[in-house]
Each structure stands twice: as C-alpha cells, then as structure tokens.
Design goal:
Layout: E1 3-6, E2 11-16, H1 22-33, E3 35-42, H2 48-59, E4 63-67, E5 72-78, E6 90-93, H3 96-106, E7 113-117, H4 127-135, E8 139-142, E9 151-154, E10 162-164, H5 170-180, E11 186-190, H6 198-205, E12 210-213, E13 216-220, E14 225-226, E15 229-231, H7 236-248, E16 253-260, H8 267-274, E17 278-287, E18 290-298, E19 306-307, H9 319-328, E20 332-335, H10 348-358, E21 362-366, E22 369-373, E23 385-387, H11 392-403, E24 409-412, H12 424-430, E25 432-433
Parallel strand pairs: 2-16, 3-14, 3-15, 6-7, 10-11, 19-20, 23-24
Antiparallel strand pairs: 1-24, 2-25, 3-5, 4-5, 7-9, 8-9, 11-13, 12-13, 16-18, 17-18, 20-22, 21-22
Bound molecules: shikimate-3-phosphate.
Amino acid sequence: MNKRIIKPIKSLQGEITPPADKSISHRAVMFGAIAKGTTHIHNCLMSADVLSTINVFRSLGVNIEADENAGEVTVHGVGLKGLKAPSDILNTGNSGTTTRLISGILSGQPFESILSGDDSLNSRPMKRIIDPLAKLGADIKGINNPETAPLKISPAHLTGTDISINIASAQVKSAILLAGLYAKGETSVTEPSKSRDHTERMLKAFGADISVSQLTTSVKKCDELYAMDITVPSDISSAAYFIAAALITPGSEILIKNVCVNPTRAGILNVCENMGADITRLNERIVSGEPVCDLNVKYSELNSTVIEGDIIPALIDEIPVIAVLATAAEGNTYIRDAKELKAKESDRIATTTAFLNAMGGKVTPTDDGMVIQGLKSARLLHGAMVESKKDHRIAMSETVAALNATSETTINDADCVDISYPRFYEDMKSIIVLN
Ligand code: S3P
C-alpha cells in the first residue's frame, strides 16, 4: 500500500500547466486508429487510462508510436474496416472511457472480442451501453453478470435507429455514435441533459457526417474517417485541484495555463463564480476545435451555493474537489441530481463524505449528492489518515484539503493519481510556498 504524507502549506504562487485532457486524448487515439492515414497527436496525455486505450488498439493490429516523455503519439490508422481480431482478452484497466467507447467500435467489427478491466472497472455499470448497442443490433453480453464487464462482443450487422438515454453520459452517447459509424442509415441519440461533446466535435473534424440539434446527436453510416493532427489542451478536471487549492489557501495567486474550457466541461468555473471566486480568463483561443484559455486564480472568501440540474454533467468529475471548496465556504452547500457519482471509479458520494468528515468536515451524504456545512475556512480541517479507495480524483481532492489542514494527513493508496495525472504531487509541490 503506497502512502503520501501531505503537510500544511502557507500558500500557492506561480504558474502551472496541467496535463493534457484525458477525454480528448482517448478520443484522438481511438478515432486516429480507425481513420485512414496517420494521425499525429501533440501533447497527448500519457496516463494509465490513455495507455489502456493505446494498448487495446495495438492488440487490434494498429501501429501506434508513443513518446511518453514528449506526449507525442503517432497513430497509423487502419481505416474503419481495418482492425484485426485480437489474440487475447483486451485489458481496459481502470478506464470506463476505454471500455465503453471501444465497445461501440467493436460492435461493428466482423470478429469476436472480450473486454475486461480491473476490479473497479469490472464492477461498474455496463447495462447502460449493452442495452442501447443491442437496439442497433449489436451482440454484446456480460460474461459473468449481464450488467458488468468482462464483455463479449460478437459480430453483428448494425442498423441505425433513434435512441433515448436516461442518463447524461458522454461515454454512453459516444459508444452509440461510434457504433453508428458502422450502422446502416442514421443513428441518433437523445440525452436528458448535455454531456461533454468532445466526440461530436472531433468525429466531425475526422470527416464523419454528424449533426447536433439541442440534446439530439445524429450520425450517418460512414465509409471512411480521415487522419488529422490534434493538439490536446490541458484538462480542466486536473486544473480543478489547483483552482480549488488556490481559492481556499489565503495569500495564493496562480496562473493555470492552457486549460480546455469547453462549456460542457467547465461547470466548475460557473460554480466558483457563484461562490464569489476571483478567477479571470485570459488569452482565450481555440485549439484543435476546443475553447482554451489561461486562468488566473486568487484566494477568495467563498459563499455556499446550490449545484443541481443540467450543470451536473459539466462538473461531474469535479464534485469531490468542489466539496472541499464548499467546506471552506460560509453557509451550507447542496449538491443534488448527482446519483452518477456512485457509478464512478469509487462511490464518490461515500468516499468524499468519508475523507472530509475524517478531517473534521461536516458533510451529510444524500441519495443523489451531499450537503456540506461550510466551516468558513479550510484551515479548520485537521490532518487524518484517509483512504483514496484507489480513486485518482479522491486522492487529489484529499491532497487539496490536506494542504490547508492544521496537521499532517496520510493518504493511503496515493499512487492511483497515475490514472489521470502521474506528476500530480510533483506539480503541486512546484507552486507551494511552505510555512
Ligand atoms: C468521460 C465521461 C464522463 C466522465 C469520465 C470521462 C468521457 O463519464 O465522468 O471521467 O471521456 O467521455 P460519463 O459520461 O459516463 O458521465
């Protein structure tokens, strides 16, 4: 069991460029693999989850060169019909995005494949993709349990249809759209509120016939996607830990560079604004079809807020660290409509409540979120022994809380940050001013 000891700090100062966006990196590798020609990905995230995607496509016969230090990835695409039958089970590790999106692609292949991941992944819900893919004609089954991986996907002829999904999930939407590339006619998916739209933006750039009308996205059967160059901006989900740490640590001011602020991802910025945070967007620009800017973040006295409804998908991965922000605010913060937290790498309602309360926070879990009693200062938390439950976003949120606690905190299973942010502790250290 690997541990990290986090000591209280004075403040945060300086500049930081968070790692590349995980969702965009996964998609760049996947779409490059099934496109015709060579796709160059600059600043690709080289974390365990993206390596799972790269390795799965290598097992499907795609030549992918990856310079892990430089984040340069070259994908020699095989075209929509060029994937080869794998000789073994495809290992998707801890990655829900890899498993669910690739299931869509594999549903349209003329060979059988089996996808399986680690214990956490194999306990996460897969019926949400099995059922809609089956509506397109896919032959996809849970091998041991009808609702979870390992998944066996057998050859089938797909036919496009209109599908409504009852959870706002980009992973489910993307699985359907990717299967739709192989399905006769047109496939459309309607979601209850808008989830992240990287698939729509990037598939269009790769040449797919895809259109979006409010909550419905439609794609037509595709003959070929075409390779392109992609530069991946920094991940707002990783930037979130620096945003939160600077906002709650008195005397802090940092510049977070190159952050993707796609509105379907940037809900945390709206929440921070509602809480009275001092965040300025600088140097706004477009990078590979995604809105990007630098964020100047200053320590702020925060007010409580209510987070519910359509904004939830735009900040779903940031809720654990938003709970830390709410602990430092004045008043009670209510998070609702976020039942999806239970289906992530851990049950994040339970894991967030557990670590904050262990540190002296006052969080009450609810069926679809939590109520956080603000302490008016993060400095009122105390150090504790906390569990990440091998969930990267929990370990990083625990670090943010611990930086401000009155005594040192030990995080168990701290190395799980490798899933999305291998250099997290070193990068955080680089902007810390010690007491
Ligand atoms: C992701 C979508 C989200 C998010 C996950 C990455 C993606 O999951 O939580 O970390 O890349 O599509 P859901 O779409 O299932 O909510």
